[in-house]
Specification:
Layout (H helix, E strand, L loop, with lengths): L1 E6 L2 H12 L4 E7 L16 H7 L2 E4 L8 H9 L3 E5 L6 H14 L3 E4 L6 H6 L8 E7 L8 H20 L3 E9 L8 E8 L4 E7 L7 E7 L2 E6 L4 E7 L14 E4 L2 E6 L6 H15 L7 H21 L4
Helix pairs in contact: 3-4, 4-8, 6-8
Length: 319
């Protein structure tokens, strides 16, 4: 069993215990709270890094950690420890790139878990998505506070950027981004337009001007449209109804007609997300496998988010 330390508060570490107890591969040995000022020196760096690295084989970084010292991550990686991040954490490109370099040299496993790409809805949809031409993303989220646009963007849209970068299967050619001030002096809507080298396009609209509760992907490809509703955990496929003679093996209750399109509700494969993540994490460690979501994805997401925030803040200093 891998000796496991949770980086997070006591309350959050207690929430991890049932997940670890269900796994035969991880043994909880304690928690360490990076946000507790008593655990940091006057420069904000975590103390007792060497002692911590010797106390565990695995570190799990809770999603709600606010102050994550990069030098500590570098130290435990050099020490041969494996890391499971709950979501994307490192928004600075240089920090993510340096950690990737150390992980590659040491052959540690750094596994990114609990992101949209690994969720049942997208795992199901990814079986059908082939060469998308247009991607539209809508998401309701809070208004960014002045001076905190960069962290707001990473927190709210990093996982969406991750998905579109992977399914586009192409390098980014051009990004334009514009905040819209509709109700006051804070940006109520962020509109992003991304063009890829393979001529596919993505449009993102995010902010409080979007209908509350909305979290939706619409993915257009040749002859098909996929509608991913993350709020309702629902996947719809739309096909043109021209091919009336084509045989269909779908059940009647799965198919309906919508304005010249055949609507098919695809069943979402249910699975326990954290049970799957921990099982895959253990297998990645023991067999030296590359995680589905790894440090390479974290670096790419950081670069994309940096590009967007640079373009916005260059023109709109007030955000």
């Amino acid at each position: 069993m891998y000796k496991t330390v949770i980086l997070g508060s006591q309350r959050k570490s207690e929430q991890w215990l049932p997940e670890l107890d269900r796994s035969s591969d991880f043994r909880f040995t304690g928690f360490y709270d990076p946000d507790d000022s008593a655990n940091a020196d006057p420069l904000g760096q975590l103390m007792y890094g060497m002692e911590l690295a010797q106390s565990a084989d695995v570190f799990i970084v809770d999603r709600h950690v606010r102050k994550l010292d990069p030098s500590f991550l570098h130290h435990i990686t050099r020490s041969g420890c494996h890391v499971l991040f709950d979501g994307y954490h490192l928004q600075e490109c240089d920090e993510a790139s340096e950690l990737l370099k150390l992980q590659t040299e040491g052959r540690n496993c750094i596994h990114i878990g609990n992101v949209l790409y690994n969720q049942p809805l997208f795992t199901t949809a990814n079986q059908y998505i082939r060469k998308p031409r247009l991607i539209r993303i809508e998401k309701h989220c809070t208004v960014p506070q002045n001076g905190h646009f960069k962290s707001w963007f990473y927190k709210n849209l990093a996982e969406e950027m991750d998905i579109l970068l992977r399914i586009s299967q192409s390098n980014v050619r051009h990004i334009t981004a514009r905040p819209l001030f509709l109700f006051g002096d804070k940006p109520d809507l962020l509109n992003i337009h991304i063009e890829f080298d393979n001529d596919s396009i993505c449009n993102i609209a995010a902010g409080r001007a979007i209908k509350p509760g909305t979290h939706r992907f619409r993915i257009f490809q040749q002859d098909k449209l996929y509608d991913l509703n993350f709020t309702q955990n629902r996947l719809l496929e739309y096909r043109q109804t021209d091919n009336r003679d084509q045989l269909s093996f779908l059940e009647d209750d799965e198919v309906s007609s919508v304005a010249g399109f055949t609507e098919i509700e695809r069943p979402v494969m249910p699975f326990d997300v954290w049970k799957t993540e921990l099982r895959n994490f253990s297998e990645n460690i023991s067999k030296s496998l590359t995680p589905i979501s790894s440090m390479e994805e974290m670096v790419q997401v950081s670069l994309a988010c940096q590009s967007v925030t640079d373009k916005v803040q260059r023109r709109y200093m007030e955000v």
